[in-house]
Specification:
By secondary structure, this protein is of the alpha/beta class. It has one domain: Vaccinia Virus protein VP39 (Rossmann fold). It contains 7 helices and 7 strands. Strands 3-2-1-4-5-7-6 form a 7-stranded mixed beta sheet, sandwiched between helices. Helix 3 links the parallel strand 1 and strand 2. Pfam families: Methyltransf_25. InterPro entries: Methyltransf_25, SAM-dependent_MTases_sf.
């Protein structure tokens, strides 16, 4: 794999200095990015807890507002990592949750905690994700996927494709990443979202900025209803 993800001009994820995630940088290849997450998988839960990471809870609660039947709704958690978002979704009564992530060691850790029903090791990007059929889920959750060194706007059509018409896509990330990450800055991420809306693929039902993603760092939460 030779394509690259882009981040901001500063190397590393803020708050994760002296960890593998602190080594994330602009222009990393997919393999390099996955290697960082693989090396950090067994420490991820502990280190994020130390930093009072509330993104998974914020994402789960935002999605839950739109999904009526929590027992029967099928959710795909994209950028699943070790499954922290799944843990929060299960606390809210959701039981059918699959995880997709390119880091096999992160998924292995999630499996050791029994956090997902199905574990899918794959990338989401410009090319169609081959392991998932159209209209497979009632919703997609994606917390911490749109960050330095990770997902780009070209993955949005696949996120839509995974979801049945009338279902939802919930994307949660740090609000400041909309201006500091190269792939999203200058309005590029939201412009890509709007273009897909103008083409009739989905419609935005909420866009909220809330405090507490990390202490002193706001989250931005996008929720879209799939139309196509």
């Amino acid at each position: 794999m030779t394509s690259t993800y882009h981040g901001n001009i500063m190397a590393g994820l803020p708050l994760f200095e002296n960890t593998a995630l602190g080594q994330m940088r602009d222009g990393m290849t997919k393999d390099e990015m996955v290697a960082q997450y693989d090396s950090f998988a067994e420490l991820y839960d502990e280190e994020t807890a130390k930093r009072d990471y509330q993104g998974p809870r914020i994402c789960a609660e935002a999605l839950a507002k739109w999904l009526g039947d929590r027992k029967s709704s099928c959710i795909l958690d994209v950028a699943a990592g070790t499954g922290l978002c799944a843990e929060e979704l299960r606390k809210l009564g959701f039981t059918s949750i699959d995880g997709l992530d390119p880091s096999q060691r992160s998924l292995d850790y999630a499996m050791s905690k029994n956090r997902y029903n199905k574990y899918i090791c794959d990338f989401v990007g410009a090319n169609r994700t081959s392991n998932i059929d159209n209209d497979s889920y009632d919703a997609v959750s994606c917390c911490g996927g749109f960050i330095l060194g990770a997902m780009e706007p070209d993955c949005l059509p696949d996120l839509i494709r995974f979801v049945r018409p009338g279902g939802y896509v919930c994307i949660t990330t740090r609000n400041n990443y909309l201006t500091t990450v190269k792939a999203y800055s200058g309005g590029k991420l939201e412009a890509a979202m709007l273009e897909l809306q103008n083409k009739g693929f989905w419609e935005q039902v909420s866009r909220d900025v809330v405090p507490g993603y990390h202490p002193g760092i706001d989250a931005v939460i996008f929720v879209y209803r799939v139309l196509r």
